[in-house]
């Protein structure tokens, strides 16, 4: 029995027909398939989990389909200590704020911009609660 690992970095990649067809084919051949979610945005990770469940709800995947996130892989590691010079502590409120509607999520995104560069982002749900 073999193993296949799919690195999913975006919701668009998860929705591709070739992804669905390949995962279904491998699982039907008895191969183990791991889908590794590598989304940076927390809300995309949650959406990806729901989308995967919807995509494969009609298939008998048994114990052959496994889902992990990058957070799952590193959650028990302490990581490397940063020096004070490497730590980024920036007060975004001093920067220009631009607010956008997030059509995919339904909330808003506040972006903090300085000299044309985005230095920070706050995602809020429809109630205005911070998600990130």
Features:
6 strands; alpha/beta; about 130 residues
List the helices and strands and how they pair.
Blueprint: E1 3-8, H1 11-14, H2 17-28, E2 32-37, H3 42-55, E3 65-69, H4 70-74, E4 96-101, E5 108-114, E6 117-124
Parallel strand pairs: 1-2, 2-3
Antiparallel strand pairs: 4-5, 5-6
Structural write-up:
- The structure is a single chain.
- The protein has 132 residues and is α/β, with parallel strands linked by helices.
- Helix content is 27%, strand content 29%.
- The protein is built from four helices and six strands, in the order E-H-H-E-H-E-H-E-E-E.
- The chain has helices at 11-14, 17-28, 42-55, 70-74; strands at residues 3-8, 32-37, 65-69, 96-101, 108-114, 117-124.
- The strands form two sheets. It has a three-stranded parallel beta sheet with strand order 1-2-3. Strands 4-5-6 form a three-stranded antiparallel beta sheet, with no helix packed on it.
- A hairpin with a 6-residue loop joins strand 4 and strand 5 (108-114).
- The termini are far apart.
- The mean pLDDT is 82.
């Amino acid at each position: 029995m073999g193993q296949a690992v799919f690195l999913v970095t975006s919701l668009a990649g998860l929705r591709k027909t070739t992804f669905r067809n390949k995962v279904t084919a491998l699982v039907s051949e008895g191969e183990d398939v791991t889908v590794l979610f590598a989304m940076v945005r927390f809300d995309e990770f949650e959406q990806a989990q729901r989308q995967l469940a919807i995509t494969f709800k009609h298939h008998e995947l048994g114990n052959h389909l496994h889902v992990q996130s990058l957070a799952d892989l590193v959650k028990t590691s302490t990581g490397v200590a940063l020096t004070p010079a490497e730590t980024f502590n920036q007060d975004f409120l001093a920067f220009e704020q631009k607010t956008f509607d997030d059509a995919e999520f339904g909330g808003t995104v506040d972006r903090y911009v300085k000299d044309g560069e985005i230095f920070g982002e706050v995602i809020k749900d429809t109630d205005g609660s911070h998600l990130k």
